[in-house]
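Handover notes (outgoing to incoming on-call)

Open items:
1. VRR-NUC domain-containing protein: sequence verified, structure written out, both below. Nothing else pending on this one.
2. Nothing else urgent.
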Amino acid sequence: MTTIRKRILATQFAAKQLEAVSAKKLTKVAKKLLPTEQQIQNAVMDWIRLQKFNFYLIKKRLSLIDYAWHTPNGGSRNIIEAKRLKDAGVLSGVPDITIAVPSRQFHAFYMELKSSKGKLSPAQIKFAHNMKSVGNYYCVAYSVNEAIEFIKAYMGDMLCTAQ
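VRR-NUC domain-containing protein structure tokens:
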């Protein structure tokens, strides 16, 4: 079993174990076991790296990772770097994962990842509205499994790999 597959399975297993415990019963130790947004991000991108798809205009299998990326907008930055990035066109509220493959219904796929208690910022809500208003797919996932299900639903029968 590959390292990527092991990491995906470990994150999914931990999430399933903790889903069974009610939020009120979570101890401090158990709360530390909940996957962070970064761990969810890594596992989802690992899963994407394993996927192949058929696009109706191209007669060969393509790697999904060649059409998907993470936009690293989050994190703290010093004032000078933040201004430099803003001047360069960095947009607040851009979601974590973009898949630039049109589906039968949408132009592109945007997914924001959140930990179990994460909430969308006003900038993220605005971005979601803007993308949906021009025919793009936008979703928010709170676990690896949920993120994978959103991608599978979006890609539909284009996906070749059932992992």
